[in-house]
Amino acid sequence: FGTMTGIEYDDFLDLEYEPAATDLTCEFTIDPAADMSMEAAASRVASESSNGTWAALHVDEDELKDLGAVACEIDGSEITVAYPAALFEAGSMPQILSCIAGNILGMKAVDSIRLEDCHWPESIVSGFLGPQFGTSVANEKLDAGERPVLATVPKPKVGLSTAAHAEIGEEAWLGGVDLLKDDENLTDQEFNPFEDRLTESLAARDRAQEATGERKDYLVNVTAETTEMLERVDLVAEHGGGFVMVDVITAGWAAVQSVRKRCEEHGLAIHAHRAMHAAFDRLEHHGVSMRVIAQIARLCGVDHIHTGTAGLGKLANEDTPGINEWLTGECHGLTPVLPVASGGLHPGVVDQLLEALGTDIIVQAGGGIHGHPDGTHAGAKALRQSVDASMAGESLEDYADDHPELATALEKWGAETPR
Ligand SMILES: O=C(O)[C@@](O)(COP(=O)(O)O)[C@H](O)[C@H](O)COP(=O)(O)O
Ligand SMILES: [Mg+2]
After folding, report:
1. Which of 273, 286, 304, 372 is catalytic?
2. Ribulose bisphosphate carboxylase large subunit C-terminal domain spans which residues (predicted)?
3. pTM above threshold 0.95
4. CA–CA separation, 326 vs 78, rounded Å?
5. How many CB atoms lie within 10 A of CB 158?
6. 273 included as an active-site residue
7. Model confidence over 347-377: pLDDT tens digits?
8. DSSP of 152-179, one letter per residue?
9. Considering only CA atoms, which residue is closest to atom 16 of ligand 1?
């Protein structure tokens, strides 16, 4: 036997430690339990999320590769933990999350803990495919030019027949929308089966492309049990679709990585819906931030992901501009992701939305199009007009003077944020 060494919680705290370039560093907000100091709590976070446990261990140094993380910074209730790259399996997001967002979120040593941010080293990023198209879909697969890509979800979100779904899609595409999108809970139910919906919607797409001269496409929801989901991805390619949509949180990151591989073979772009994200990120002091969820999604290879409306829509969300900046910024050569603003949007808030988030986004409106007093086609035209006005630097009110669909929308919704 070689030298026996002891491993205990204190070994995972070193405030002098400078993270190596190959370390993954994570920032957590923690609230230590009543009888626990920040230092003690921080060391337990680093220990339990790498290779430590509560009991002092005696191990043979020759037999053990030192994979311990280090709590290396404490700043108020914020701590930074550095993880050696060798702790992780290259290219496996579930394994990484089982470390940095695993048991530690349930430890008694802290009353609450939130994973706020990660700094991903090249050594880890290089193990992931990243997005295939990302922001380039706007002009590689569509004809958006400088303006935002426009998308719509037929409403009501479920219950429509296949024929009604495709017809609404055609109306919206003809009105100026680029992408038809399934709702997060529409998959392969009897009232609107997956393959029928796919073929009829793509046929409507082709007619709308013919009529408008603009490329259009369909974000069809393939979310299902993984092998079934991969078969649906193949069906989309077989029938000439260019995109798939996945509920990334409910399907799970392992499944997302499998879909990404399959989409590489077919040249399909992936739209990530984040249903259930609020279970992780809604509370400010506990869970996993949307910023980290967005980072995970980019590494796993989605091309678009919902990131919120900068407070203008119906859903609570955090720091959309900051998250979008990370998604479109430099990260060891990863393709930038196209952020999606959605949830309670309508033509009356588009100017403020583009002011807050810029134009390299997807703007999705469901109720904001299909709730238009004159119906889907007029609703789609009104949304397109609101974008055209903003791109031209004209106020929505002035532009509405000779664009009746927009005028009707402003009359109905003004610039209100629905609740
Ligand atoms: O079901 C809905 O509510 C939506 O289809 C929007 O519909 P409306 O356009 O009719 O509001 C989207 O799923 C949400 O935007 C998702 O939230 P987020 O984008 O925050 O992930
Ligand atoms: Mg929805």
Report:
1. 273
2. 137-413
3. yes
4. 20
5. 16
6. yes
7. 999 999 999 999 999 999 999 999 999 999 9
8. E--SSSS---HHHHHHHHHHHHHTT-SE
9. 343
